[in-house]
Amino acid sequence: MLVDDDPLTRAAIKPLLRPREDYVVVAEAGDGREAIDIVGRIEADIVLMDLGMPVMDGIEATRQICAAPRHPHVVALTTWDVDDAVVRVIEAGAVGYLLKYSASEELHAGLRRVMAGESVLSPGALAELLRYVRCQPTTPTAAAYDVRSQERQHAVAQARQAAAGLSRRELEVIAAAAEGLTTEEIANRLYISVSTVKAHLRSAQERVGARNRVHLAVLAERAGLLG
Fold first, then answer.
1. What is the Cα gyration radius of the chain?
2. For residue 4, what are the CA distances in angstroms to 20, 24, 73, 107, 177?
3. What global pTM score does this model have?
4. Comparing C-alpha atoms, which of 188, 197, 192 is closest to residue 170?
5. Tens digit of each residue's pLDDT (9 = 90 or more) over 44-74
6. Residues with Cβ within 8 Å of residue 154, at least 6 apart in sequence
7. Residue-wise burial string across 173-195, b where 16 or more C-beta atoms lie within 10 A, e elsewhere
């Protein structure tokens, strides 16, 4: 499903999905509210979500879509480098982000990673995201101390508290995932099975309150778990 307030952008992205016929655009929406309404009526595996839209932006739409027990993967579409909006949409539940004008191969590679349960972000993109997070203030200023900031602080506090109960192996898996390694690459590095890696990731995500492995990396960075 494509969500963008610009029909020309949607028209430009659709042909990029066609060459291999791996994906079919089952629906389109022009704002976040429309996207929520449509998602409730169709079966979509992935929602490609613009961030800046009228009526309801992509961050709030992502938050509401991902609040459902069963929901599609949301991948943010952005024309910018990493900024606070990208971090916020990941905190809202997006599994990552892709540049709007990515080449067809990059778009397909990212979507394949999503469907395989991997991070949509390449190692380089994840490193850039974590560098941005690292440079953010750990405590919001008075002007920025809104509900979202309080939620962010609570999530970091929960992650720090949960860290005490994480096993050494879980911490190793988190660190490897934060490098952008695939599940198989983590298994090879740590000499454990793929199923064991998946089990450790699920356990770690549940303990620290992460929505997915990219959010796990962000929380781990904020909580000081990555060294």
1. 17
2. 23, 17, 16, 16, 30
3. 0.87
4. 197
5. 999 999 999 999 999 999 999 999 988 999 9
6. none
7. bbbbbbebbbbebbbeebebeee
Q: Which two tokens stand for residue 124?
A: 């380089």
Pairing of strands 73-78, 46-50: parallel
Of 84, 197, 211, give the one whose Cα is nearest residue 155.
211
- C-alpha closest to that of 17 among 53, 56, 44, 57: 44
- 127: in domain: no
- Match 């409730």 to its residue by tokens: 40
pLDDT tens-digit map of 69-95 = 889 999 999 887 778 888 999 999 999
Longest dimension (CA), the chain: 50
Using the CB atoms, write b or e for 113-145: b if 16+ within 10 Å.
bbeeebbbbeeebbeebbebbeeeeeeeeeeee
Residue 64: both structure tokens together = 């509401």
Phi/psi for 200 (5° steps) reads -65, -40
Q: How far apart are CA 183 and CA 201, in angstroms?
A: 9
Give me the count of residues in the chain: 227
**CA–CA separation, 73 vs 155, rounded Å?**
21
161 and 114 within one domain: no
CATH number of the domain encompassing residue 68: 3.40.50.2300
Same domain, residue pair 92 and 47: yes
